[in-house]
Design goal:
The structure holds two protein chains of two kinds. By secondary structure, chain A is of the alpha/beta class. Chain A is built from eight helices and ten strands. Chain A starts with a strand and ends with a helix. Chain B is built from 24 helices and no strands. The chains are: A alpha/beta, B mainly alpha. Chains A and B meet through strand 6 and helix 2 of A and helix 14, helix 18 and helix 24 of B.
Chain lengths: 235, 493
């Protein structure tokens, strides 16, 4: 589904990302881990064509993202709060996103209704603007908005950060369901090794912009990741 | 020594802000303004004594000056209210550090005393004082007088912050201030209560009896204490964290459906305007724009010069267009990344802005119909100007928007907020306002009023006819600068 080829991004002489080859098949739940500055957000930004690659390209469903916009209808993302429109209520925001993705109000309502327990009664019918919600609740709204409109690729940057434990567990269930049952390609970045090994079939470790590990998740993965990160931190 | 640290922080904040680094031109302009005022005040300070002596040989120049202090106070309060802001300091990081709250407050207030607004009068007052000494006024009295004026300056300084803190909450805060100062001025002007005399007598009193200097000093101290208490109260984290959340009325704006593809964006824009302080103020500016014609039309000087009607028409019918349009797409800067990764086309996005602006021009034209009272030709000029606005200026301003690289924080206060203003906004004004003025003026001069209106309108019609082509051009321009805009909008200024 997603093909990365010779991709690099540098600012001046400083290279921040350099991925020679990375393929993510359809329906895979893909986890990206790495320390701060490893290039996770840079990779997602390139995937969403928010920044320009220095060399190489990413193909999303055979569409080069920096040349055509045709990947947009089947791709959705929640990177950070700047994806929210602060002066809308969550409902208005969902309808707005729905409208952009060709969904009518009933479609959006039906989808959002599935996430009632995820919202924990703190999002819908609160008569509050998104900007007045807490960070965690904003995140919930943003994640659910990314599920609107039957996307085939969903990109979530640090979805677990700022969420309370209950919501983290519910989110894991949601993400698993997306990949396993609905065949959606889900890309997640996280600092939380436990969550990411729970959820993702495959985990790639980035370090200083390069892929240093590419693992199929198994029993041993968490141990391996922990060893890797505790080892690399002492260097 | 905490003061040193504070000053160090300020210095870094100022020079490391991207605002400073990116808008050199604006800074240079401001420095020039400041220098200009300093020089003007110096000249006034030196020259006023001989001039008054020459014009009113039988009066004491000092008393004449004193009798004008009331006007100075009123003007100074107004100027400061609009232009001076309490120096801000990001206190949040300091709250958990071992710094006494009172120290922070004293620092902020103390710093405000060194504002340019307080120095400026001194450039006139001190030379004037020296002139007085040269002309054999008693030294002590002159010193006391200068100190009195300094006290008044500082009193205004601190009074202003009290006014501002009361008005910061609401939108139209400037109205009561204008109303009160206007009222005082009127009371004085119609001699109901002569504040001029009262103030003059007070200042003369201090001049004659130096002990009375205590009065302004006490007032000053009182105001300082009030300010101190108010600020200290605000210095707790919960006051900045707690935002008064109002219940939201949401309406679904179904009528925008008529606009087809761009309907979701129309809804978004309408909510943007209505729910955020700053864009909402561009709606209130409509009133000012609408009344702008009153400045010209009833005035016989201008009714002799019909070539200016075209310009007034552009301004009156285009006030919203100019005010709102100059910050496209910066209005959406907060969530621009999201828009760019969504399944949208620039065309629909820009089309919505275009519709909104064109619609506002029509509304303003209808509202300006009463100007017909001052002559039919005014209505004619307004219609022509409105067509020109829709056909040409909307496109020009959207095109200018593609050069926009400055983020806007929607929640900041509205009036006299220059955030997001850059060279683009200054430059775009030229083709927007001057071009139609020139077109109209030249064709009026070459032919007559009706033909000039016709030409202006025709150019507008050409713009409307080529609307699709022009929009395509503009969309290309936006696409070309997409990455730059995303990058610029995601930076904090």
């Amino acid at each position: 589904m997603i093909v990365t080829s010779n991709l690099s991004k540098s600012y001046g002489s400083k290279s921040v990302l350099n991925i020679a080859d990375l393929n993510i098949p359809k329906g895979q739940s893909f986890g990206l881990v790495g320390n701060n500055g490893a290039g996770k957000t840079t990779y997602f930004s390139l995937l969403l064509d928010l920044i320009q690659p220095t060399t190489g390209y990413i193909k999303n469903n055979n569409i080069k993202v920096n040349e055509s916009e045709d990947w947009k209808p089947f791709t959705s993302a929640f990177i950070d709060e700047s994806f929210l429109i602060g002066y809308l209520t969550p409902e208005e925001y969902f309808y707005f996103i729905g409208e952009l993705r060709g969904q009518n109000k009933a479609d959006v309502d039906a989808l959002v209704a599935q996430f009632e327990d995820f919202f924990h009664g703190e999002i819908l019918n609160q008569k509050k603007y998104l900007r007045d919600l807490s960070k965690g609740n904003q995140k919930k709204a943003g994640i659910v908005a990314a599920l609107i409109g039957n996307p085939e690729v969903i990109i979530l940057d640090e979805p677990f950060a700022n969420l309370d434990p209950t919501t983290q567990i519910r989110l894991k269930a949601i993400v698993k369901n997306l990949a396993e049952k609905q065949g959606i390609t889900v890309l997640i970045s996280s600092h939380d090794l436990l969550h990411v090994t729970d959820v993702c079939e495959r985990i790639v470790v980035l370090e200083k912009g390069e892929v240093v590990k590419d693992l199929v998740t198994s029993e041993a993965t968490l141990k391996e990741l922990e060893a890797h990160f505790s080892g690399s931190e002492t260097v | 020594m905490k003061l040193k640290h504070f000053l160090n922080l300020e210095w870094k904040q100022y020079f490391r802000s991207s605002y400073w680094q990116k808008s050199m031109a604006l800074n240079i302009l401001l420095v020039f303004f400041a220098l200009y005022f300093v020089v003007m005040f110096l000249i006034v300070g030196v020259a006023i004594y001989p001039i008054l002596k020459d014009q009113f040989p039988d009066q004491d120049p000092l008393f004449i000056v004193n009798s004008y202090i009331f006007y100075w106070i009123i003007v100074d309060v107004l100027m400061r209210f609009f232009f001076q802001k309490l120096p801000v300091m990001s206190v949040k990081p300091l709250l958990t550090l071992p710094v006494k709250r009172s120290k922070v407050v004293n620092y902020v207030l103390g710093k405000s005393a060194f504002s340019f607004f307080n120095f400026l009068p001194m450039f006139a007052i001190i030379p004037f004082g020296i002139m007085l000494l040269i002309n054999d006024y008693p030294t002590v009295s002159v010193l006391v007088w200068v100190l009195t004026i300094l006290c008044i300056t500082l009193i205004i300084n601190f009074l202003n912050f009290i006014l501002e803190s009361f008005s910061a909450e609401t939108e139209l805060s400037f109205l009561p201030v204008i109303a009160i100062s206007g009222g005082l001025f009127a009371l004085n002007y119609f001699n109901i209560i002569s504040f001029t005399d009262l103030v003059a007598q007070a200042v003369n009193g201090v001049y004659n009896n130096p002990v009375l200097l205590l009065v302004p000093i006490l007032i000053l101290i009182a105001l300082y204490v009030v300010n101190f208490k108010m600020l200290r109260k605000k210095l707790f984290l919960d006051s900045s964290l707690k935002s008064n959340v109002k219940e939201v009325n949401s309406s679904n704006l179904e009528w925008t459906r008529k606009f087809g593809d761009s309907a979701p964006f129309m809804q978004l824009d309408l909510r943007l305007i209505w729910r955020n302080k700053r864009p909402r103020s561009s709606v209130f500016i409509l009133i000012i724009g609408l009344l702008y014609g009153l400045f010209f039309y009833p005035n016989p000087t201008y009714s002799e010069m019909p070539w200016i009607f075209g310009f007034v028409g552009i301004f009156v019918t285009g006030i919203f267009l100019i005010n709102f349009g100059q910050f496209v797409p910066a209005w959406d800067s907060g969530y621009y990344k999201m828009l760019m990764s969504q399944n949208i086309q620039y065309k629909q996005y820009l089309k919505s802005k275009f519709n909104l602006m064109a619609f506002s021009v029509v509304v303003m034209l209808v509202l300006s119909i009463p100007y017909v009272y001052f002559g039919w030709n005014i209505l004619l000029a307004h219609v022509a100007a409105a067509i020109y606005n829709i056909g040409v200026n909307t496109h020009v301003i959207l095109l200018g928007g593609s050069f926009n690289r400055k983020k806007i924080d929607l929640n900041q206060r509205a009036a006299f907020n220059y955030q997001g203003t850059g060279a683009v906004q200054w430059l775009i004004g030229l083709p927007l306002m001057l071009l139609p003025l020139v077109i109209f003026g030249v064709s009026y001069w070459l032919t007559n009023f009706e033909i000039a209106c016709l030409i202006l309108a025709l150019i507008g019609v050409v713009g409307i006819v080529f609307h699709q082509k022009l929009m395509k051009l503009i969309v290309d321009k936006y696409l070309a600068s997409k990455y730059k805009m995303i990058d610029a909008f995601s930076q904090d200024s």
